[in-house]
Design a protein that fits this description.
By secondary structure, the chain is mainly α. It has helices spanning about 5-25, 40-65, 90-105, 110-135, 140-145.
Length: about 160
């Protein structure tokens, strides 16, 4: 159960999320004490960043007009369980996490590492609130959650064992 007004808490989480994304996107200043990652590490960061953009973009596109930054679903929204939502329950958040980690790895800045970690924490709270609201709104949400992982494919779905 969400304590306090979910709209007020949702606004606070969205504000924190936007501030952390801004901290990740802002161009890093020159720092003579920092060593910029090279080679495979930089490539891996770029791949994570690109994967995050694709996954998050697919999730946003699939929601269409139901897309909102708030944890509360829009009035008239339907539960999406196909496409990228058939792979993970929260592809937009998964994309943000992948992108944030990719940015931190690519730049090598400690402030980006901290911002990425804080963003994961904010999104974790947001996902928990959102799932409470989705369960209240959509009777089929529990069955969907049983078969679909939260953020990473193959991690976190509460799959039932096959009948004996």
């Amino acid at each position: 159960m969400i304590t306090g007004d979910p709209t007020t808490r949702g606004r606070g989480l969205v504000a924190a999320q936007m501030a952390l994304i801004a901290a990740l996107v802002l161009r890093p200043r020159r720092d003579r004490w920092r060593r910029r990652p090279r080679g495979l590490l930089r490539v891996a960061g770029g791949v994570l960043l690109a994967a995050g953009a694709v996954v998050g973009g697919l999730g946003a596109r699939r929601l269409g007009p139901a897309l909102t930054p708030m944890p509360q679903p829009r009035p008239g929204a339907t539960l999406r369980t196909d496409g990228v939502y058939g792979v993970v329950r929260h592809p937009i958040y998964a994309g943000l996490v992948l992108g944030a980690v990719g940015r931190a790895v690519t730049t090598g800045l400690g402030r980006h590492v901290v911002a990425a970690g804080a963003l994961v924490g904010v999104l974790t709270l947001k996902v928990r609130d959102e799932e409470v609201l989705l369960r209240e709104r959509f009777p089929d949400y529990d069955a969907y959650a049983e078969r679909t992982p939260r953020l990473l494919p193959g991690v976190g779905a509460r799959r039932r064992p096959p009948p004996a």
